[in-house]
Amino acid sequence: MSTSTPTRFAQLAAGLALHSALGLAPASAQTKPLAANTLTVRVDKPGAPIAKTMYGLFFEDINFAADGGLYPELVKNKSFETADHLIGWKAIRGGAALSTYIVSGQQPISVTNNHFLRLTAATASPDAGFLNEGFRGMGVKQGAEYTFSVYLRRGPGAVAGLNVTLEEAGRGGPGPEMPASGQMLAQARISGLGSEWKKYTVVLKPTATAAKARLKLTLDGAGTLDLDVVSLFPKDTFNGRENGLRPDLVQLLKDMQPGFLRFPGGCIVEGRTLAERYQWKETIGDVATRVPLINRWNTEFTHKFTPDYYQSFGLGFFEYFQLSEDIGAEPVPILNVGMACQFNSAELAPVSSSQGPNAGEAHSHADDDPTLEVFIQDALDLIEFANGPASSPWGAKRAAMGHAAPFNLKFIGIGNEQWGPQYLERYEPFAKAVKAKYPGINIVSSTGPAPEGDLFDKATKRLRELKAEVIDEHYYAKPEWFRQNVGRYDNYPTTGTKIFAGEYAAQSVAIGSPDNKNSWDCAISEAAFMTGLERNADKVVMASYAPLFAHVDAWQWTPDLIWFDNLRSYGTPNYYVQKLYAANRGTTMLPMQRGDNAKNGQDNLFSSAVADDAAGEIVVKLVNYSAEARPVTINLQGAKKLGKAGKALVLASNDLNAVNSLDQPQNLAPKEASFKVSSANVAYTLAPHSFTVLRIPGKR
Fold this sequence. Notes:
Blueprint: H1 6-11, E1 38-42, E2 57-58, E3 89-91, E4 100-104, E5 116-121, E6 129-132, E7 138-140, E8 146-157, E9 161-168, E10 184-191, E11 198-204, E12 210-220, E13 223-234, H2 247-255, E14 260-263, H3 267-270, E15 293-294, E16 310-311, H4 317-327, E17 330-335, H5 372-387, H6 393-400, E18 411-414, H7 420-437, E19 442-446, H8 454-465, E20 470-477, H9 479-484, E21 498-506, H10 520-535, E22 540-545, E23 549-551, E24 562-564, E25 569-571, H11 573-583, E26 588-590, E27 592-594, E28 605-612, E29 617-624, E30 630-637, E31 645-652, E32 671-676, E33 681-686, E34 690-697
Parallel strand pairs: 1-30, 2-14, 14-17, 17-18, 18-19, 19-20, 20-21, 21-22, 23-24
Antiparallel strand pairs: 1-27, 3-6, 4-5, 5-13, 6-12, 7-12, 8-11, 8-13, 9-10, 9-12, 15-16, 24-25, 26-28, 28-29, 29-34, 30-33, 31-32, 31-34
Helix pairs in contact: 5-6, 5-7, 10-11
Enzyme class: hydrolase
Signal peptide: 1-29
Pfam families: Alpha-L-AF_C, ASD1_dom
């Protein structure tokens, strides 16, 4: 998600019925379909190839998408390195059983991890300790294993150990008078403490499932104990990785068969200031040494004020590359172009090549005035990190993290959603430097947040003059905008620069409204619009819905593709639209026209077609945005070796306000059945308000 506030946008300008569950009659042949509903697919005159990257994913850490979501660490602020060092932590009974507690920097674990929690108890007490609330609680499952680890150092006194308890939260909530205990789910004791920092590990196995558990740490005995890097991590991760990701969420992504994964955003790439920008070099290496950063969405919206929203970077650039590999998607990292968010500080890095003593080196969040050369060097180093041999400086860092083979990076984004001359004057030297060293890299460029207007037109014109490979366009609008703009790319140039529809989503109420829903009206309108993307596959090579994830208890922006809580997750109707397109991408565009030469979308009938040469099938996508069943005849002109049966996948609902939920995740999901194919003229009845995918055995 790379939008800022609702105000900014104000300133910018049924499928084939298959099962009785749909409540529709079985599909039947029509004796004489209306001429207006005859669709001719020119199987004998194929168009452009469909890019493997055509349908993909846009990830941004908004809505607790990373920490508290895809990244399954259960402890919030595990290293006490946030600006408010005790975010997520509360002393039991306000610290009544402790003599003192303080976040200290005296002889820390490392230079980057330079804060820790020091607890002192004058007398032994079961309440001498702290609780961690997790990310809107901790979701744990009965019988599953969770690795607890912590760095400890014993100070003066006779502390004999640390008691570790996983429990359900008490009724008092996470206030200053947090209750001392709830129902115990698991417990362990750490002993053998020493006077030097040492890592300790135990495994906790809950006796019950809880969506809102918490972690309780108490001193065993009186005296002083230092704690740091407190972690509670599930053993059940995708592919069983030690620092892996939440498996149900990754599986939802993999099931989409995405062509690419764009990361890490979004406005977090820019930051509210340059000091708060996303710096990929600080997100790799030992997880314990990664310095957290304020999430720029934490206080952006008054309707979801979340000052506790930080990025731990446990999910960093190495993990993003690894995730891309795991789900079979091309990685598309987006880097800062030397501009902070233009809707916040609009801070700019100097374009001048007058390099300071640190130009070209990695900068920390504290650096105030990095030059453009610093940002360019970060990009060059990233490409080496991804693609360089293990013998290269940055390739060696990748290899040290466990991936000796290159990631085969093909795309890199320069800037997120910047606009105006400030962007173009930074983009040009940036792109020139990248292409000079890595001519095979495809660069994704920006036209800003609006899909039209003077700034959009000027950026598009200049980027095409510079022979940019891919231009990123964004649009958030009401559902009707998507149906009305299905022909957006019909008249775009067929040669030269290609298009990345990098962020789009229909907004049921208004752009940025907290009342937006992932309704069927939004999803079917997006499905209609996507027929226009597919019909223009010679111009559009990438497209992704945004945002991707949202925690039901901690979201900032809606609508979103996938929703989850601490234990469950579900795909929205929009998710299933995206999945049906990506899983039925095909290999070659097939021209398609109405019998009366009507435009795509006329009379609320939208269509596109592709050949899937690998499967030996013709794939036709049909959207009926009307309240009536609609007969259509599909004329497969020039098709060869037609089979006798095809497969239909249908998303349909008579209720345009229908949504999915955690309790009803399949309320609106595709239905599948086979159908007969007797000739090159295939007649069907489309259900009211439906999106239908027909796969017909046949070759071109």
